[in-house]
Amino acid sequence: MKFGPVAIADALGCVLAHSIKLPDGTLKKGLLLGEAELRRLAAAGMDHVPAARLEADDVSEDAAAEQVARALGGAEVDIGNAATGRVNLYARNGGLMVLDTARIHATNAVHEGLTVATLQPDSPVEQGQMLATVKIIPYAVPQAAVAQVLQSLRGTAPADAGRRALRVAAWRNLPVGLVMTRLPQTSDSMLNKMREAVAGRLAPLGGSLVAERVVEHEDGAVAQALQELLRHAAAPRLLLVSGIAATVDRRDVVPLAIVRGGGRVLHAGMPVDPGNLLVLGEFPAEAAPPYPVIGIPTCARSPKLNGFDFVLRRLAAGEPVTAADIMAMGVGGLLTEIDTRPMPRDPRRRG
């Protein structure tokens, strides 16, 4: 693409680079200059006009933006119309925005004029919410750059085949079972607070609390309660354990109970604060994928965002959560601290 001042006599078919006010009105930038527009410019005494001239190997801004947007958006994503080199992508339904950040980074590294901006990965989104915007900055970009961007969005790993870099995983009707432990001094109000916090988190994600057990804070009692929930008539597909005391080791009550109940611990701890003390495990299920089980950090009694939300959102959208997934949550994992935290992470706040 050529850009700069062009003589009026040579500007037919060029794109107007900047808006120009004329005595009889305004010619807006991005306008394709025809004979009528050139006559108006000449009548206003102009002999040159700021313009862009597309070359044979260029793709116009709207066409390039549309190609990139269609290669980017996958399941449950609606693609808007192209205008001024921009195409927006929207959530067709509520759910979790799933993003392949490596492919987005690769796309934005191709050409400075081809840009893709998205929400944060694993963002919960509502129906109609904007997920991303594709913006072509100049009036045209080289065809070779567009082709490279499309290749970047397709990805190179075998797992990328058939999966778009951006999609929305819809919330599922997730039935949940909850085990809470207590000590002799534990108040009913504290248990109610955790129960309400869990139910409040599930409702916007399409989940529901269908079964519950309250037992002593002892691994054998927790293991038995988990086994009972597995056999419960309401058939919970996610098991949660809220220990009245924080889990600080794999040999502590909650992870030990998961193993004793017939499951296994996949990961203990997470690089998200608040939420460091989460435990991720699973129970084998006959003729079905394993049942995930989460040892909830005690900070989840508060409705404020914490590491438990990061894991719960993925499971509520039917997305797997592995130990590697949890270990990758550290960037952006420093969250607003909960006011009632017994031991603030910043020493300057203690006391």
Structure characterization notes:
This protein is an alpha+beta fold and 351 residues long. Strand 15, helix 5 and strand 16 (207-216) form a beta-alpha-beta unit. The protein is built from 9 helices and 20 strands. The mean pLDDT is 93. It has 3 domains: 2-53, Alpha-Beta Complex (Molybdopterin biosynthesis moea protein, domain 2); 58-169, Aldehyde Oxidoreductase, domain 3 (Alpha-Beta Complex); 171-327, Molybdenum Cofactor Biosythetic Enzyme, Chain A, CATH 3.40.980. It has a 6-stranded mixed sheet with strand order 16-15-17-20-19-18, with helices on both faces. A 4-stranded antiparallel sheet has the order 7-8-12-10.
Keywords:
single chain, 351 residues, alpha+beta, Molybdopterin biosynthesis moea protein, domain 2, 6-stranded mixed beta sheet, 4-stranded antiparallel beta sheet, 20 strands, 30% strand
